[in-house]
């Protein structure tokens, strides 16, 4: 039982280190955000407009 607890502890530690490594990668490779910068959301031009659908259902 002690051996399973030790391996579980190592597993949790490995997951934590992997998470910190991914966070550091995202911080150092991501672009800096400045207050007031527009957020660019890209979508297909032929995508349906769901807001128009909800307006028609309200009437």
UniProtKB/TrEMBL annotation:
UniProt entry keywords in alphabetical sequence: Membrane, Transmembrane, Transmembrane helix
Top-rank taxon: Bacteria
Transmembrane segments: 7-28
Name of the featured protein: Uncharacterized protein
Organism: Bradyrhizobium archetypum
Lineage summary: Bacteria, Pseudomonadati, Pseudomonadota, Alphaproteobacteria, Hyphomicrobiales
């Amino acid at each position: 039982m002690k051996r399973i607890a030790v391996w579980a502890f190592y597993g949790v530690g490995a997951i934590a280190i992997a998470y910190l490594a991914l966070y550091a990668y995202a911080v150092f490779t991501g672009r800096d955000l400045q207050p007031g910068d527009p957020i660019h959301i890209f979508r297909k031009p032929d995508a349906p407009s769901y807001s128009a659908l909800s307006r028609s259902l309200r009437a």
